[in-house]
Amino acid sequence: MNKKLLLSIFAAMLLLFLAACGGDDETDEGQESANDEESGEEATEEQEDVTIEFWTMQLQPTFTDYIQGIIDDYEEENPHVTVEWLDVPAADLDTKILADVSTGNAPDVVNLNPTFASQLAQLDELVDMEEAVDQEDKDKYVEGAWEANNLHGVTFAIPWYLSTQVTLNNESIYDEAGLDIDSPPETYEEAREYAETVKEETGKYGYFPSLDLSLTLQHMVKMGADLTNEDGTEAAFNTEEGLETFEYFTDLFERDLIPREALVGDQRNTIDMYQAGEVAFFAGSQFISQIEENAPELYENTVPSPAITGDSGKKTISVQNVAVPSQTENQEVAVDFALFLTNAENQFEFTQLTPILPSTLETLEDPYFTEVDEDATASDLVRIESAGQLEDAELLVPPMDNYTDLNESIYDAISAAMLGDMTPQEALDQAEEEWNEILAEE
Amino acid sequence: MKQHKLTPYLFLLPGSVILTVFIFYPMLQAIWMSFTEYNMITDAEFIGLENYENLFDSDVFWNALTNTFIYLIGVVPALVILPIFLAVLVNQKIKGIGFFRSAYYIPVVISLVVAGITWDWVYRENGILNYILDYSGVIAEPIPWLTSQDTAIFAVMAVTIWKGIGYYMIIYLAGLQSIPHDLYEAAEMDGANWWQQVTRITIPMLMPFVLIVTIMSTIAAMKVFEEIYVMTGGGPARSTETLVFYIYSEAFEKLNMGYAAAGGVILFLITLVISLINLKFMGKDRTKT
Amino acid sequence: MAVEAKDKKSIMKKILLYTLLVGVALFMIGPFIWLLATALKSPGENIFQYPPTLLPENPTLMNFVRVMDTFPFWRYLFNSAVVAVMTVFLNVLFCSLAAYPLARMKFKGRNLIFILVLSTMMIPFQLLMIPVYVISLELGLQNTYLGMVLPHITTAFGVFLMRQAFITIPYELDESARMDGANAFQIWRKILMPLVKPSMVTLALFTFVSAWGDFLWPLIIVSDQSMYTLPLGLNMLSGTFTSDWRLIAAGAIISMLPIIIIFLALQRFFISGAMKGAVKG
Asked: Considering CB atoms only, which of A5, A61, A95 is closest to C185?
């Protein structure tokens, strides 16, 4: 056999093997130090060195200094703790954490998507904060925010920052259509009327409601429907109110009063069209900074107003959270860090950087959330409008088992109605049937 | 021909080790998963053929499978044939050809998120495509390309083709370069005209590359995901939902890994059969004689 | 007269050819033009205006500079370069080795092995991800360059492409070499590899592009921010609360530049006539 061939193949394999072994050593060391941590936990009093891994969802680079500041403060107060921070792209955080939970490699503290967090909670993979956090600390948070992370009596995360929906209105389209920017639509009925006027006068779209994520369910609740019965075993939305929701969107769609993109689009479409100046109003307070960056002229023309709602008068709140996976070997430190991260002082600093609301009661009392400055920008107005609604706002779609299936079923049904494949009533019947099947599953 | 018995295997060794560790073994695990109920977190539980039964009972699965076939039929012929013309076009020895080759390759490397935004402008109701069609009098009403069940899948296909053309063009270009020039010279001496040269030399010599493009584009079409994810998210009303999109959402949104794996195995089998047929009919190589 | 007509004909042919080339080019690079225009726009211009404006009012290169300040640009670039270069080198080597017997030798199980290799492309990566991750963790590949490289250094596409390239080479070449006493490895190295350069270059290019752009796998295997690659860094340009398209566009262009440069550099391997005289060998 040829020597050169053999040699080069073996050289290549050996190289790889050695390199792989080199990597191996590193992990071995890692495991050793992990063992150290374990023994460290047993003797917490001695305060042996602990390293916790902390993941955020795409906060770099805008908030690098802010988060690093919190970590530095925490490490200073707790010299035995080292916090290793990893910033993960939002769209793929679910996949990454799934891979790591699956292999027993989960981080210690992590900011999760609420729906994904509830899926992990369903599998008992997140620490129950009812047990891990004492009453005194619990009382510092807005009650609705604390309860937003509750599934079957288990609180699977600590609330971080909040937002409520605020409608953004394009003043120049209002002017063009002869509408008054000072009385923007606050109910679905008004939104329909405004959409008609805008269409007639300008040919543009008035309203762009998104049906992405849980938004369809939220529209139904706002119009007064209940999603399930009290014990969550049966669908309860096949009522007049539920039908009204389906009919409302079907009507808007058929009369071309909302862009067809409402059906396929994720929320990106809404913001793109608003930025293009083709939509008069939409619910999008979370996009205000983007508008400032990408469409500065439009930002000057943007006026925030209270969220559009239906007969129920309900307004929606969304809650970001910090969870501690139960795989952690440093639960105590991890929970402590999560509480530190979300404490009043740190959250107040966060809200200075971007228009979000804090989940701590103390922070909310600050005039920053109540008083309008004379030279207030659109972002300031969004923040104040948003804070003003907090009292009436609630989590409209609570964490549910098999939420993804349920949501998909509703979305399929309303799409079918809007496209005219079914009547709204038929679509609603179909969704109800599917929901009952899914809810009956264990 | 004399050749040591082990020689071929030694050449194959390094690649085989890598493929075994990083693909075959995981593939076997995925196949195993398809017979279990597995959410990636708690232990997998063997349930026999239940996942497959559920798949065959699911309208959503059949819809995804149908869409995948529509995709396959629409995309593969275009991606096998169009790049040949493009390759011949950029195989000319003229000034600035390097620029054109790179230009045609750009869609391959540009991120789909970026391309998606510009394609939105092409497809929207007051977009470029409707403007052109309206201007030339082909249509009276603007067509909602991406937002109607009837057209969305074709609109996304066009993006796949746009993105793939440059890729396969390069493969063909490599193929054209591999054809020994002497063959053309000899043919010319025999008095063969351009067309005869194309049909008697270029196309037969290019066949190995037509085979690879056919198989590669078939596999790519069977696995199409990103374009759908970016452009329509599977809508409207699931009219653009393909098999891999379905598998992805089952696995990572609903944590039904076992069920998703069963879908993957079916996808695998279909792709395998199509590829074997292709190999059988187009892959007649000269080593067999 | 005849000569003049011929000239005219060739000029006409050239005009036609260029029209065709330019027409197709416009269609292919439309999105790129928008990207470039966006990257050059200064703050104050609406990016999402419709119809889109392609000429920036106040062109600026600031966005490119800002991208480099957004994340540890040079560090991530270095990581990406290490991963891409290792992947390209090993993938081309291993695939060409494996393709040779599959194309030009007779041995037991050849067709089966070839089909098995092809079959590795037929299952979606999403389903293999967790098992591959488990294996990689066991091999201690987390947070290593090798972890990002190893799973990609033998690709079915590469084996397939090289096999097809080897198939096109006339058999007389091996035989005459064999008569001269060359062994299999020498034939592969000295005779065949130089002849399949266009395919080798194609494989190198494609491997580079996929290694350079790989997003999901590096994200999974790396949990140490200093090991992030360029695509992971560029992703930071659109944050949770912000997404400035000027920066996103500038970042996209920066990440495409190396590919375009490599592509232009590899041009010379695609020049017609490179194979001249091959048969005479």
From this structure: A5
The tens digit of pLDDT for each residue in A338-396 reads 999 999 999 999 998 888 899 998 898 888 988 888 788 888 888 888 888 888 788 88
CA dist C32 and C55 (Å) reads 13
Give the per-residue pLDDT at A106: 93
Mean pLDDT value across residues B33-51 = 93
Q: Which of A45, B30, B229, A140 is nearest to C125 (CA)?
A: B30
Its sign, for the CA torsion B195, B200, B206, B210, is positive
User: Is the minimum CB–CB distance between A213 and chain B shorter than 8 Å?
Assistant: no
Domain-embedded: residue C92: yes
CA–CA distance, A333 with A205 (Å, rounded to integer) = 52
Q: What is the pLDDT of residue C277?
A: 37
Q: In terms of C-beta density within 10 A (0-12 exposed, 13-18 middle, 19 or more buried), how is residue A29 classed?
A: exposed
Q: What gap in Å lies between CA A78 and CA A49, rounded to an integer?
A: 10
Q: How far, CA to CA in Å, does B40 sit from each of A120, A405, B259, C56?
A: 11, 18, 12, 49
Domain that holds residue A360: 50-160+319-369
- Window 180-239 of C: residues touching A by CB (8 A cutoff) are 183-186, 215-216, 219-220, 223-225, 232, 235-236, 238-239
Report CB contact under 8 Å: A354, C150: no
Number of domains in chain C: 2
Measured CA to CA, the distance from residue C281 to residue C278 in angstroms comes to 5
- The ipTM (two decimal places) reads 0.88
Cα C58 to Cα C64: distance, rounded to the nearest angstrom: 15
Token pair 């703790």: residue = A81
The answer to whether A290 and A202 are in contact (CB under 8 A) is no
- A109/chain C closest Cα distance in angstroms: 14
> 């080479």: which residue's tokens?
C169
Residue A379 is predicted with a pLDDT of: 86
For B196-209, write each residue's pLDDT tens digit: 888 888 888 899 89
Residue C43: cis peptide before it, omega within 30 degrees of 0 = no
Give me the mean pLDDT over the A297-310 stretch.
91
> How many residues make up chain C in this entry?
281
Give the minimum alpha-carbon distance from B11 to chain A in angstroms, rounded to a whole number: 8
CATH of the domain at A352: 3.40.190.10
- Note whether A185 and A275 are same-domain residues: yes
Per-residue pLDDT at A442: 61
Residue A335 lies in a domain: yes
* Pairwise CB contact (< 8 Å): B236 & A419: yes
User: CATH 1.10.3720.10: does it fit domain B46-282?
Assistant: yes
Helix, strand, coil proportions of chain A in percent (round to 5)?
55, 15, 30
The predicted structure's pLDDT at residue B276: 94
Backbone angles phi, psi at A284, to 5 degrees: -160, 40
Interior CA angle at C86 toward C83 and C90, to 5°? 140
> For residue A380, what pLDDT is reported?
87
Q: For residues C129 and C187, state if they share a domain.
A: yes
What pLDDT is recorded for position C110?
Answer: 92
Question: Does residue A365 sit in the same domain as residue A381?
Answer: no
pLDDT below 50 — which residues of chain C? Answer: 1, 273-281
- C-alpha to C-alpha distance for A275 and A173, rounded to whole angstroms: 12
Task: Mark out the alpha helices in C180-244 (DSSP H runs).
Answer: 184-186, 193-195, 197-213, 216-221, 230-235
Tell me which of B18, B38, B147 to substitute to probe the interface with A (most A C-beta atoms closer than 10 Å).
B147
CB-nearest partner of A95 from B117, B232, B252: B252
* CB-based burial, B223-252: b 16+ in 10 Å, e otherwise: bbbbbbbbbbbbbbbbbbbbbbbbbbbbbb
Domain stops at, among A369, A390, A406: A369
- Give the pLDDT score at A46: 58
